[in-house]
Amino acid sequence: MSETASRSSREVYRDLVAELLPRDERLVCLDSDTGLFGGVDFGTARDRYVNLGIAEHTMMGTAAGLAKEGRRPLVNTMAAFAASRAVEAVKIDIAMNHLPVVIAATHSGVSAGHLGPTHHALEDLAVMRTLPNMTVVAPGDAATTETLFRQALSVPGPVYFRLGRGPTPDLPQGPPVRLGRAQVLRRGLDVTIAACGPYPVLAALEAADRLGRDGIRASVLHVHTVKPLDVATLAAWASATGVVITVEEHWASAGFGAAVAESLTELMPIRMHRVALPDAFVSVAGDQRHLLRRAGVTASAVVERARAALGQKDV
Amino acid sequence: MTIVSTTPGTLPLSETTARVREHIVGMCAGPEGGHAGGSLSLVEILATLYFRVMRVDPRFPGAPDRDVLLLSKGHGGLALYGTLCEAGFFPEEWLADYAMPDSHLMAHPHPEIPGVEMPTGSLGHGLALGIGFALAFGLDSADRRCFVVMGDGELQEGSVWEAAAVAANHRLDNLVAVVDRNRLQITGDTEQVGGAEPLAERWRAFGWQVREADGHDVDELTLALGTPPTPGRPTLVIAHTVKGKGLPFVEGHVRSHYARLSERQHQRALAALRSEREKA
Question: Which residues 109-168 in chain B show a CB within 8 A of chain A?
Answer without folding.
Answer: 111, 117-119, 122, 124-125, 127-137, 139-140, 146, 159, 162-163, 165-166
